[in-house]
Each structure stands twice: as structure tokens, then as C-alpha cells.
Write a structure and sequence with these properties.
heterodimer, A: mainly alpha, about 75% helix, B: alpha/beta, Rossmann fold, Alpha-Beta Plaits, 2 domains, six-stranded mixed β-sheet, 11 helices, 13 strands
């Protein structure tokens, strides 16, 4: 375990160094990190033109999508693209030769890159928090702990989900497209397109038990103080359940997939 | 050390004819064929030996190496390396082997090699002392000092290859698999890599299995060769024995004081190259000494040199006769 943690530190450092190598890439990464604010702009327009939907005011949307911006940048789903590229190019072989499971290699490098993005975004988010009264999130020790746990759960589930989908590359060349389909469907059930409270009753109920909310809507709702104790516990239970499901799927997928690995390109 | 028995690796691949009609047909009807990349290969390599692995493109060399390193699961047969079954990919096994692929980049493309070495140190769990000792030795042997602080992507191919070798050897593997390690390098680069590998083997007694299209790599490093073609092993033995078995002739290169008259070579050998007063004769191996003596006795000879045909030609003969 200590060896794995040491490797995580070194690989995360490598990811950080790669992320800060090119200024242009860093600027683009930070800019795209603000994409959730585009959805906020849409909802602010709705509020301005038609009044607050389901009682959601401009301040509510501001608070929600500021937290969503943080979550979007904590997503570990980028690993699916790296897996896909490595499987196609044959670079996965190099990772398989190291005495550390490729999952950890991708995860650690992604953590390093996330860190850079978050550090770059932090000043903007901090400034927004100071200037906007809407970003006055309720702070108690219990809520802080719940928010921290929800963020970790969201990152872990996103990483594991993406890694599980990446294993499809052992069977198909369409991993990225399948992932886009999953992500597209999930964007409605995650709270990305709209806060789940604004959905009709049955999609909202479905979203509560699907995995997508655990990676976006749930931690945002915890941060913004929209959940009571029972709802928070249910959210954690659902997220942990899906973490177990994808952990199992990953394990089975890896065992079967790596047997099929053709180690292409050289 | 390395034991391979009846190794087979078969791939099921999608086959499609070129053209639009074939593309559309393949949408509804997939046709697959089984490619027998490796089919019943067996050999043993003791600790510390350097073995050359020869074969034309698609012969099964790289597939065999990938089975030996655990990248591929064999379709049949058994593989044992250092007492491990490679495809189980146990960390204890992976810490003791290394595979260098000439056309693959195991370093961070955007970072200096020194950063990638630090990552390898952590991934292989190397303590500071052994890591520093290995790094210092590799930097010295491969002349890496001026390269360590430069981005890998701006290095020349030869420089990058030297860094790749260092990265692959920091953990001092007991078994080193090399797949075309000098691919694309110029003559100086090839010589540097060969000298390093020879030195590394001498210092650490590492077992080395090497594939290369450059015969110079094999003749410089390996006494024993494995020749594989169409997935089957055609030869396993000394390079000298291979030459003897597949080349019934030796080459006698004669330098005369003046061009020889027509018919001067009758009964001596087959002229395979005539360049003014320098003539190369193919002579039956058993008669080489006698022919050389007759040449010296009957012609105005300045110099006589006897040698074997280039190994490339012999390998071609092996494959042609397979």
C-alpha cells in the first residue's frame, strides 16, 4: 500500500508537470473549466424572462452552477480518452509492463492534472464567492465533512466509471463514442443540464437512483445546503452502491479484457 | 530462466476486402480469419545469455516477446520467465524484467527524461541509494548528462533511444527484452547502443533476448540465435553453426597485381564479384584452404582474404529453404 501511495505521488507530480508544460493548453483548460456557467447563463435568462422556475431564483442558480463548476473540474472522466488513445496506439503495453496496475497510473496522472486546473480556477471561484452574496453556502462542520466526502465520492465514482468504460477498448474501437452516449444521457440525470429539482417527478426519481447524480448533482446539492440528513444519507448510499457495482464491473472487465489484449502497434 | 514450451498465439482478426461494396457488406456480414502468429515455439535460455531472435516481418518475433513479457496471453503452451508465468503480471515479475521497443516511447513526451526517471523510481519502488547508483552508471555509460534536462520530444531519435534504455534499466532487470532497439538509428547510434548493451550484460549478467533487423546488432551481441518464420522456430543454436549449415560456400577475396586473364578461375570457384583486379570467389567450404593455396601458387596475388557471406544472405537462405 505504501508503495502504491509513493507511486501515486510521483505519477501525480508527473501529471502536474505535464499539465503546466504548455501555457496555451493551461489557459484552454481553465477556460473550458467554466463551461457549466454557460448552463447558468441559460437559466438566468429563463428567470429573467419567465420568472423563477419551481421557485429557483437567480441567486439559487448562481450558487448551484458555481458549485457545479467546481464539480465539473473534479471529474475523473478524462481517463477514458487517455485509455482509448493508449489502446489504439499500443502505449498501453508500456503501462502494462510496469509493476503498478494501469488504473492507478491513469488515476494518479489525472489527479495531478486536476490539481493544476483547480489551483488555476481557485482565484476566480474565490473572487466570485467574495463578490456574489448568492454564494453564501451554509457552513457547519457536519456539512463541510459531508461536502468533502461527497466530492471524494464523486471523483472516485467518475474515475471508476470512466475506467470501466475504457475497458470496452479491449472489445471495440468505439469506446469514446459509447462514452459520449453515456455522458450525453447522464448530463440530464446528473444535474448538469438542469438542477434535478426542476425535472418532472418520474425522471427526478429515476435520477436519484442512477449513478450520474452522485458525480454532479448530489455533491452540489450537499454544498449548497439543499438536502436534509435523510436525503444526504440516501445520496451517499446510492453513490457507494454504484461505486461497488462499477468496482465489480471493472474487476470482471479487466480480467476478461486483458486476456483479449492484442498489444497492437509494435 | 526462460522456458518456452509449445507456445502458440493465435489472433482472430476481421478480414475485409477493399472498396465501398466490401465495406457495406462487412457492415452486415463480418468475416474473421485466425492468424497463427506463433505456432508451437519452444526454447530455453539460461541466466546471463544473450540471444538474437531473427525472422522476417510478421514471423512472430514480437508476438513471442510480448508473450514472454506478459503483454499477451498465450493461446496454448507454457511460458516461464524467472519462475513466473508472465501473463499473470505479478509485480514481483515485472520488477525483474524490462522490454524496450525501438518504436515506442516509454518516457513522458513533454517532460525531460529526468522527470520520467523519477516516476520510474517510485513505480518500481527503488530506494534512493540503489536508484542513484543505477542512474549514475547509466548516465555515464550512455552519455546522458547533457540530455537529462531536455524535453524528450526535442531529442533526436538516437538521444531518445539512449534515454529509453536508461529508463528501462533503472530497476536493473534480470531479463531484458529488446525489440528492434536500434531501429532508425544511424551507424554511430547503433554502435553506441550495441556497446552499451554488451557492457551492461557483462556488468550485471542480465539475460538478453534481442530482435533486430540489423544483423550487426545480432552479430555484435549474440552467439546464439533463434530463427523464426511464419510462427515456427527454424533454427536454435550458435550463429557460427547457422552460417555453416546454411552457407555451403565461403568467400575468397583475391587482390591481384593485374587483372586476371579470362578462364583463370576455372576449377577454383565461382566468381561472384569482379572489380578490376579484385575478385571474390564463392568456394565450397571444405576446399577453401586448398583453393587459397592454389591461387597463391598460380596467380600474381597481392592479398587473399577468406570470410563468410554476410549473415543477411544466410538468413535469407534459411527463410528461402524453410
Amino acid at each position: 500500500m505504501r508503495d502504491v501511495l509513493t507511486a501515486y505521488r510521483a505519477l501525480a507530480r508527473g501529471g502536474t508537470l505535464v499539465a503546466v508544460t504548455y501555457r496555451g493548453r493551461l489557459v484552454l483548460r481553465v477556460l473550458t473549466g467554466f463551461f457549466p456557467l454557460l448552463m447558468m447563463a441559460v437559466w438566468l435568462t429563463v428567470v429573467a424572462e419567465s420568472g423563477p422556475p419551481a421557485g429557483w431564483t437567480s441567486a439559487d442558480f448562481l450558487a448551484y452552477y458555481a458549485a457545479a463548476t467546481l464539480m465539473a473540474n473534479l471529474s475523473g472522466d478524462h481517463v477514458v480518452w487517455q485509455w482509448d488513445a493508449d489502446l489504439r496506439s499500443g502505449d498501453l503495453s508500456l503501462r502494462l509492463l510496469r509493476p503498478l496496475h494501469p488504473f492507478h497510473q491513469y488515476a494518479a496522472a489525472d489527479l495531478g492534472q486536476r490539481l493544476v486546473t483547480l489551483v488555476a480556477l481557485a482565484p476566480a471561484l474565490a473572487l466570485a464567492a467574495v463578490l456574489s452574496p448568492a454564494l453564501d453556502y451554509p457552513v457547519t462542520p457536519a456539512r463541510l465533512a459531508a461536502a468533502g466526502a461527497a466530492l471524494v465520492l464523486a471523483y472516485a465514482l467518475g474515475l471508476l466509471t470512466a475506467s470501466t468504460f475504457a475497458l470496452l477498448g479491449f472489445w471495440s474501437t468505439q469506446t469514446a463514442n459509447v462514452w459520449l452516449l453515456w455522458w450525453g444521457l447522464g448530463s440530464f440525470a446528473s444535474g448538469w443540464v438542469a438542477p434535478l429539482e426542476l425535472l418532472p417527478p418520474w425522471p427526478r426519481t429515476a435520477a436519484v437512483v442512477l449513478p450520474f447524480r452522485s458525480m454532479m448533482g448530489f455533491p452540489v446539492e450537499v454544498v449548497t445546503g439543499r438536502l436534509d440528513g435523510g436525503e444526504t444519507a440516501l445520496g451517499f448510499a446510492v453513490g457507494l452502491g454504484w461505486l461497488g457495482v462499477f468496482g465489480l464491473l471493472y474487476r470482471v472487465g479487466w480480467r476478461r479484457g486483458v486476456r483479449r489484449h492484442q498489444a497492437v502497434a509494435g | 530462466m526462460i522456458e518456452v514450451r509449445d507456445l502458440a498465439k493465435h489472433f482472430r482478426v476481421h478480414r475485409r476486402q477493399p472498396g465501398l461494396a466490401a465495406s457495406l457488406r462487412s457492415l452486415v456480414h463480418r468475416e474473421h480469419v485466425t492468424v497463427r502468429a506463433v505456432d508451437g515455439v519452444g526454447f530455453t535460455i539460461p541466466a546471463g545469455e544473450v540471444v538474437g531472435f531473427l525472422g522476417p516481418n510478421g514471423a512472430g518475433k514480437t508476438t513471442t516477446l510480448k508473450c514472454l513479457t506478459g503483454l499477451l496471453h498465450p493461446s496454448a503452451g507454457t511460458v516461464r520467465v524467472l519462475g513466473h508465468t508472465p501473463h499473470r503480471r505479478e509485480a514481483a515479475f515485472l520488477r525483474r524484467v524490462s522490454l524496450v521497443m525501438g518504436q515506442r516511447n516509454g518516457l513522458f513526451w513533454d517532460l525531460p527524461a529526468a522527470d520520467a526517471f523519477e516516476v520510474n523510481r517510485a513505480v518500481y519502488g527503488l530506494a534512493e541509494g540503489p536508484y542513484r547508483a543505477a542512474l549514475d552508471e547509466l548516465v555515464d555509460l550512455l552519455g546522458l548528462a547533457p540530455l537529462l534536462g531536455r524535453q524528450v520530444r526535442v531529442l533526436s531519435l538516437g538521444e531518445r533511444m539512449r534515454c529509453e534504455l536508461a529508463g528501462a534499466l533503472l530497476h536493473r532487470p534480470d531479463v531484458l527484452f529488446l525489440d528492434e532497439p536500434t531501429l532508425g538509428l544511424d551507424v554511430n547510434g547503433q554502435a553506441a547502443v550495441r556497446a552499451f548493451l554488451r557492457d551492461y550484460n557483462a556488468r550485471h549478467g542480465a539475460t538478453v533476448l534481442l530482435t533486430s533487423h540489423y544483423m550487426g546488432d545480432v552479430t555484435a551481441l549474440a552467439r546464439r540465435v533463434l530463427v523464426i518464420d511464419r510462427g515456427a522456430l527454424r533454427f536454435d543454436g550458435d550463429l557460427a553453426a547457422l552460417v555453416e549449415a546454411h552457407s555451403p560456400h565461403r568467400l575468397v577475396r583475391v587482390t591481384l597485381r593485374e587483372p586476371a586473364p579470362a578462364g583463370a578461375w576455372a576449377g577454383l570457384g565461382e566468381p561472384v564479384d569482379v572489380d578490376g583486379a579484385v575478385v571474390t570467389l564463392a568456394v565450397p567450404r571444405a576446399e577453401t584452404a586448398a583453393v587459397a593455396a592454389r591461387l597463391l601458387a598460380t596467380l600474381p596475388v597481392d592479398d587473399v582474404a577468406i570470410g563468410d557471406p554476410p549473415v543477411e544472405e544466410i538468413i535469407r537462405a534459411v527463410f528461402a529453404g524453410a
